[in-house]
Amino acid sequence: HPCLWYRVWLYEDFLDIEKKIIGDNVFKLIFNYLKYSIIEYERRTGNKFNGERDLQNFVYSLIRTLFSSIEFEDPTEKLAEKSNRLDFVIKDHNILIEVKYIRDREHAKKVGDELSADYTKYQLSPYGKNIINYIYDPDKHITNQILFKKQLDKMLPKAHNYIQWVAKIFS
Description:
Radius of gyration: 18 Å
Largest sheet: 5 strands, mixed
Helix content: 40-55%
Structural class: alpha/beta
Order of helices and strands: HHHEEEHEHE
Strand order of the largest sheet: 1-2-3-4-5
Distance between the termini: 64 Å
């Protein structure tokens, strides 16, 4: 009808918008500044993140506002009798996102191996063109973050790896 003043949004319209914000490095922006959102959320609400599930829920909520097709804990296909669960997948754009919350020193030592084991399977996924790993270390259990990131980038050369910790200023 020629008098319609509104526009019906089509699926393709959303895909075009999503492609544009991906091209504008939205994930770099999100994951480089995510710790500040977490700190602000905890400060305002008084709720502290108690582990990976809390962090995943927060990240999912944030990314869901930008990508309508994000799926939470999507299983990978079986390889050698074993399948994994992707934390998040945005199938329309071939993006896989893995989120890790470092709980203690032992986990800090294992997280590289965990990501490395998943990386091979994720690359074989039809949606594994872009792999993003976000590691949040609120208590600084990773002793040398810069070296850890260098090593992770070497182990997972096609992944985008983000590692953040929180400096405790006040006790």
